[in-house]
């Protein structure tokens, strides 16, 4: 047993020497997560604001200006230009310099004065469906508020009372993240995704590289056993992954002010199980790949596509087809994103996230077993 | 320059690719997986939000309101409760993302002419879903209220505004229609940059590069022989993504194939240049892979591929102009969805051309120089 430990340490030492000899790799392992953290936290916002809008006012009356002021004052629309003709609106859409055009024809004020509904056309560029959808909702809401105001003041001048019918109004409260800060939402999930991308990609090449460079035969004639080789090779990445987790949590909490409300124990337990699961996926890829290129591409593909996309990190999993729902349960990211977000934002303790922890435990045990089977068969 | 030698080099590359039993399937699995992921996951429009209704009113109106939510298509009612005590634990566990509270006396208070607030709780830990959910919820309540007032005859026939909101270019607001044209560019970039750099670095890593240069093969012949097979693969991948996009995802294409092809061609040269630069600065295939990842993530985030540029903070926006993908995305989307032509897209084409000349030119000149050393 003592000698087994010594052999494992020897392999680990060898791996650390490899890592040290390749400072670029170490940098990419340590620097890339920080860059990702900054990029995602600063660049991404799910709140759509400042949608470029052009205004075509052919009526030029107080009434039309009052209506258009509601667009200019909203956070959602940003009026970039007052245009003179329909051709300019087409042009703005073609060059994507505006996404919304509000058009008021002559006779807007006259219609209202005559007691009729005045027409307004709002054109929205649908080529960015998300903001278009919200744009439509905001345009309708702004217009109906204006509509209601005009109607109420008219009714008052006619001596009618339209406010006695009661009113029902939605009051929306956002729990856990009241300001809907994207950083609060993204960083807990980002922690999961970064660790997965790094560990899967690094361990994916571990075995196949030895074989490719011919150093593999040397290892087989040494007294080292298969399990020892695997543990020794994985250990450095395990350590690096834990350091990385701690760094991301620290940067998130101290620098970005993400609240850590729940039990640190639950987060730590989840992270350990999750790191083991990701390592096992990397080992499986390594054991099954025919060449370094294949290991690299497969690592990229698996960590990036199902790992990243199906983790629920940025894209809601509610609306995806059942077959993909099923696949998402085959990758550990899905469970860990729930744990991280619940612990950070909802103040969850071990009991709350027990189902996810149990799932990760099963996942880690099964995937590590499969990986060691594949590893020893490969040797 | 000898065409036969270039042909032989290309043949060698194809042989090497086909000898690796897993590489070729992987190369063709990649666009398929990306199509599925981007088409179905990123392109998914938010529907079926898990919702609990707390009905403390138990009246016809509260039941109608419940129906209004469930028939809207955005909310899926997972539970109807009698008290608000359990909401916290349900939301904590993530079993529901939205809770609608119908207060006691809702119907009678409204009949008495009072203002009734309808509380809607959304889970802000998923800020994207939260903003969509609150928008939809407000819409459901507003149209419910409008129908109620109309039925009461409380909307007098007076002046007002009739806003006609029309969505142009993508009236069904399907996300996939915007996703697939962008994906075409993404896959093109990945193939020439990520796959080709692996092949070039392998040659150096194994020392077979020296062997090649004791043969009569010239530097230029080597570069062409190395690049062309991967360009071929990239073109096949791109075409298959386009075909699947049009036939399977039913993405409409209103533009000109020539504009699209020209844009992609310029982007292809940028990609080749990037691949060559990456292979120059990498000593091992693993390093090449890491460098590709290093470029891939900012490209995805800052190009507007997934997240719209206008929502980014003003300080970040200048950075996006440094990402070549930004321009091809505008070209691909505007051309496919709006049928925009050269007169509208020329600034993007100029930027693409500059990138193509600079990146490709730099890549090829340094690469040849490095081979010569």
Summarize the structure.
Chain A is an alpha/beta fold and 379 residues long. Chain A has helices at residues 2-21, 23-43, 62-73, 86-94, 108-113, 129-157, 182-204, 206-213, 215-221, 226-255, 264-288, 292-309, 322-328, 333-346, 354-378, and strands at 51-57, 77-83, 100-104, 117-125, 167-175.
List the helices and strands and how they pair.
The complex is a heterodimer of chains A (379) and B (373).
Chain A: H1 2-21, H2 23-43, E1 51-57, H3 62-73, E2 77-83, H4 86-94, E3 100-104, H5 108-113, E4 117-125, H6 129-157, E5 167-175, H7 182-204, H8 206-213, H9 215-221, H10 226-255, H11 264-288, H12 292-309, H13 322-328, H14 333-346, H15 354-378
Helix pairs in contact in A: 1-10, 2-7, 7-10, 7-11, 7-12, 7-14, 10-11, 11-14, 11-15, 14-15
Chain B: H1 3-19, H2 23-42, E1 49-55, H3 60-70, E2 75-81, H4 87-92, E3 98-102, H5 106-111, E4 115-123, H6 127-152, E5 160-168, H7 176-206, H8 208-213, H9 219-247, H10 257-281, H11 285-302, H12 317-320, H13 324-338, H14 342-372
Helix segment tally of chain B: 14
The low-confidence runs of chain B, each spanning 5 or more residues with pLDDT under 50, are none
Q: Total number of β-strand segments of chain A? A: 5
Structural class of chain A: alpha/beta
The pair of chains with the biggest contact is:
A-B, 124 and 127 residues
Mean pLDDT of chain A: 82
**Intertermini distance of chain A:** 21 Å
Helix content of chain A: 55-70%
Morphology of chain B:
elongated
Query: What is the chains' assembly state?
Result: heterodimer
**Most strands sheet of chain B:** 4 strands, mixed
Q: Which stretches of chain A are low in confidence, meaning pLDDT under 50 for 5 or more residues running?
A: none
What would you report as the Rg of chain B, rounded to the nearest angstrom?
28 Å
Indicate the structural class of chain B: alpha/beta
Beta content of chain A comes to 5-15%
Rg of chain A, rounded, reads: 29 Å
Principal-axes geometry of chain A comes out as elongated
The succession of helices and strands of chain B, N to C, reads HHEHEHEHEHEHHHHHHHH
Spatial ordering of strands, largest sheet of chain B: 2-1-3-4
């Amino acid at each position: 047993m003592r000698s087994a430990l010594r052999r494992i340490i020897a392999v680990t030492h060898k791996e650390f020497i490899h890592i040290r000899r390749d400072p670029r790799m170490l940098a990419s392992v340590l620097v890339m997560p920080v860059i990702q953290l900054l990029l995602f936290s600063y660049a991404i916002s799910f709140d759509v604001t400042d949608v470029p809008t052009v205004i075509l006012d052919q009526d030029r009356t107080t009434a039309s200006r009052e209506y258009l002021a509601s667009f200019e004052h909203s956070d959602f629309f940003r009026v970039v230009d007052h245009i003179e003709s329909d051709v300019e609106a087409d042009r703005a859409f073609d060059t994507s310099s505006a996404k919304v055009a509000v058009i008021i024809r002559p006779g807007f004020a006259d219609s209202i004065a005559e007691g009729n509904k005045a027409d307004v056309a709002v054109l929205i560029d649908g080529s960015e469906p998300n903001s278009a959808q919200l744009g439509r909702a905001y345009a309708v809401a702004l217009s109906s508020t204006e509509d209601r105001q005009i109607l109420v003041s008219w009714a008052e001048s006619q001596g009618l009372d339209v406010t006695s019918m009661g009113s029902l109004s939605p009051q929306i409260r956002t729990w856990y993240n009241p300001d809907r800060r994207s950083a609060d939402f993204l960083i807990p999930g980002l922690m999961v995704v970064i660790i997965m991308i790094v560990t899967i990609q690094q361990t994916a090449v571990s075995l196949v590289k030895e074989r490719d460079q011919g150093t593999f035969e040397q290892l087989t004639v040494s007294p080292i056993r298969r399990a020892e080789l695997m543990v020794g090779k994985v250990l450095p990445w395990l350590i690096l992954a834990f350091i990385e987790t701690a760094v991301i949590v620290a940067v998130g909490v101290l620098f970005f002010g993400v609240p850590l409300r729940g039990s640190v124990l639950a987060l730590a337990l989840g992270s350990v199980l999750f790191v083991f699961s990701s390592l096992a996926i990397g080992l499986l890829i390594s054991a099954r790949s025919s060449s370094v290129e294949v290991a690299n591409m497969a690592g990229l593909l698996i960590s990036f596509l199902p790992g990243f996309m199906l983790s629920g990190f940025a894209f809601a999993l509610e609306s995806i087809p059942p077959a993909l729902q099923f696949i998402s349960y085959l990758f550990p990211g899905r469970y860990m994103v729930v744990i991280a977000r619940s612990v950070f934002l909802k103040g969850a303790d071990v009991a709350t996230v027990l189902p996810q922890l149990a799932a990760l435990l099963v996942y880690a045990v099964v995937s590590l077993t499969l990986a060691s089977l594949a590893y020893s068969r490969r040797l | 320059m000898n065409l036969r030698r270039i042909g032989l080099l290309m043949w060698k590359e194809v042989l090497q690719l086909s000898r690796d039993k897993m590489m070729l399937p992987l190369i063709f699995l990649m666009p398929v997986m990306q199509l599925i992921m981007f088409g179905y996951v990123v392109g998914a429009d938010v529907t079926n939000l898990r919702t609990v209704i707390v009905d403390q009113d138990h009246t016809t109106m509260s039941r109608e309101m419940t129906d209004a939510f469930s028939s809207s298509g955005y909310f899926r009612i997972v539970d109807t409760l009698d008290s608000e005590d359990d909401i916290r634990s349900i939301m904590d566990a993530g079993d529901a993302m939205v809770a609608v509270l119908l207060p006691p006396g809702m119907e009678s208070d409204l009949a008495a002419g009072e203002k009734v607030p309808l509380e809607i709780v959304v889970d802000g830990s998923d800020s994207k879903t939260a903003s969509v959910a609150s928008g939809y919820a407000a819409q459901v309540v507003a149209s419910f209220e409008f129908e109620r007032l109309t039925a009461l005859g409380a909307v007098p026939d007076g002046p007002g505004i009739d806003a006609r909101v029309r969505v142009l270019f993508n009236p069904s607001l399907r996300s996939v229609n915007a996703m697939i044209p962008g994906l075409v560019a993404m896959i093109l970039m990945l193939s020439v940059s990520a796959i080709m750099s692996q092949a070039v670095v392998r040659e150096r890593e194994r020392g077979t590069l020296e062997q090649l240069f004791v043969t009569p093969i010239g530097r230029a012949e080597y570069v062409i022989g190395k690049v062309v097979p991967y360009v071929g693969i990239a073109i096949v991948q791109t075409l298959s993504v386009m075909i699947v996009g049009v036939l399977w995802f039913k993405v409409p294409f209103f533009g000109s194939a020539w504009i699209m092809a020209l844009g992609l061609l310029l982007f292809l040269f940028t990609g080749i240049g990037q691949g060559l630069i990456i292979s120059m600065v990498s000593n091992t295939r693993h390093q090449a892979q890491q460098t590709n990842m290093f470029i891939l993530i900012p490209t995805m985030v800052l190009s507007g591929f997934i997240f719209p540029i206008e929502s980014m903070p003003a300080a970040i926006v200048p950075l996006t102009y440094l990402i070549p993908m930004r321009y091809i995305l505008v070209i691909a989307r505007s051309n496919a969805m709006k049928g925009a032509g050269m007169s509208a897209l020329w600034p993007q084409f100029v930027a693409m051309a500059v990138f193509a000349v600079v990146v490709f030119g730099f890549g090829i000149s340094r690469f040849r120089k490095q081979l010569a050393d």
